[in-house]
Write a structure and sequence with these properties.
Layout lengths: L1 H29 L2 E2 L11 E5 L2 E5 L8 E5 L4 E5 L10 E5 L2 E5 L2 E2 L2 E2 L3 E5 L4 E4 L15 E6 L2 E6 L2 E6 L4 E4 L8 E8 L2 E7 L5 E5 L4 E5 L11 E3 L2 E4 L6 E6 L4 E6 L6 E2 L2 E5 L2 E5 L2 E2 L15 E5 L34 E8 L4 E7 H15 L6 E5 L12 E5 L3 E9 L2
Antiparallel strand pairs: 1-28, 2-3, 3-4, 4-5, 6-7, 7-10, 8-9, 10-11, 12-13, 13-14, 14-15, 16-17, 17-18, 18-19, 20-21, 21-22, 22-23, 24-27, 25-26, 26-28, 29-30, 29-33, 31-32
Length: 412
């Protein structure tokens, strides 16, 4: 009898251990992971990935610091200080070297151009960016690499740096006002996302040497962004979503993720399929050059199982379908309003407060798609639920990601 009791206890412990392992695995997959804090809180730092490690350079509160983060050990290591400490700079990576451009330190703005050799832990000062105007300010210089050139935009002035000849060349200017911006390169085009009243995005075609304007970007600035598998990804602008800018459709696509704090002035890096969000400060309307101590925080999220526009059906894949299809014969009455609650296959829930007319439009699309007709995604307007630095928000719900949904009708 005693042996039987011991055997039962052992079996329970084995089952419990398997359960705990299963729970941890799911947490690592479906939740943001809290990593080792930065040694010093910072805002407006640059961050770049080289050979599987992250390098965080400068930023307010730690203007001269160069840090290396190893994801395999979850540890930070101090490296050689950058010669010209600054925050709100721009940076690009070429091979094992990180180029840092412009920025600000204690009221002084810089045209400085310096390069860090990650292999030898060595900094080198290069020829200054030939800006005529000295007052660019933090986040007012953006940079990207296309081919063998580094393109640098500072306000309206635009230059390229030839890495072979180590010479600067003036490029076509961009005659617009754009504050608190970041620059990203996708498909050999240079995109500028920043603060402007019209939510415009600016695209530079390097092969044609021309600028063009795209719509439906951000109306607020100081966000962070990164290129991931042909997607322009912007985390930390919403508590439960990543935003992806669709350059063809000219609009923001929302991808549901677990809850995380909104941040401005953070740094963003992707290594393999993992997104790292580093530092910053709480989102608010007034950007300040000061990092709250709460934002030593470093978090990561696996992107591997998320459905991005480049690997799901997009508006260009099939003939366009009206956003609001004709009313379905079996649809419920259109009086009143309802909460539409959609449960995704990864367990996340999205809740929308909609009119019954909008709910019926969704039901019509879902039934048609279930029968093999219509687009693979559906656009839902968030209306008054819109939060954050955006003029408007729309969710693009992917059919294959829907596990179930429910409709709770009510009258106001």
């Amino acid at each position: 009898m005693l042996f039987l009791k011991k055997w039962i206890v052992v079996m329970l412990l084995v089952i419990l251990s398997f359960t705990q392992v299963f729970q941890v695995a799911n947490a690592a997959k479906d939740e943001w992971n809290q990593l080792a804090d930065l040694p010093t809180a910072r805002i407006g730092a640059v961050a770049n990935a080289v050979d599987g490690k992250i390098y965080v350079i400068g930023g307010y509160n730690a203007l001269n610091e160069t840090l290396e983060y190893d994801p395999s050990t979850d540890k930070w290591t101090k490296k050689k200080d950058i010669p010209t400490g600054r925050g709100g700079a721009a940076s690009v990576t070429v091979g094992s070297k990180i180029y840092v451009l412009a920025g600000k330190h204690k009221g002084t703005t810089y045209n400085k151009f310096e390069v860090y050799d990650t292999k030898n832990d060595k900094w080198e000062e290069l020829s200054d960016i030939p800006f005529l105007s000295k007052s660019k300010g933090p986040y007012n210089v953006q940079a990207g690499v296309i081919g063998n050139k580094i393109y640098v935009l500072g306000g309206k002035e635009f230059f390229s740096y030839d890495l072979s000849s180590q010479t600067w060349k003036e490029e076509p200017s961009l005659n617009v006002k754009n504050e608190g911006a970041i620059g990203l390169v996708l498909d050999d085009k240079f995109y500028i996302f920043g603060k402007n009243d019209k939510g415009e995005v600016f695209e530079y075609n390097a092969s044609k040497e021309v600028w063009s304007v795209k719509k439906k970007g951000f109306v607020k600035g100081y966000l962070s962004g990164v290129t991931y598998k042909n997607n322009l990804v912007f985390p930390a602008g919403s508590t439960r979503d990543l935003f992806v800018y669709d350059t063809e459709q000219e609009g923001l696509v929302r991808i549901a993720v677990p809850y995380h704090n909104m941040r401005i002035g953070a740094s963003t890096v992707v290594i393999d399929d993992t997104l790292y969000l580093i530092g910053g400060r709480d989102y608010n309307e007034n950007y300040k050059e000061f990092a709250d101590q709460n934002y030593k925080s470093v978090i990561s999220l696996s992107l591997k199982d998320l459905q991005f526009p480049n690997n799901t059906e997009t508006p260009g894949d099939k003939d366009p379908e009206p956003t609001t299809p004709p009313k379905d014969d079996n649809a419920t009455d259109e009086d009143g309003d309802a909460l539409l609650i959609i449960t995704m296959v990864n367990g996340l829930q999205k809740e929308y407060d909609l009119s019954m007319k909008e709910v019926n439009a969704f039901l019509s699309w879902y039934k048609k798609r279930d029968a093999g007709e219509g687009p693979g995604f559906y656009e839902i307007d968030e209306h008054d639920n819109n939060k954050g630095p955006f003029e408007s928000k729309k969710d693009y719900v992917v059919f294959n990601n829907i596990l179930m949904f429910e409709v709770n009708k009510y009258k106001k």
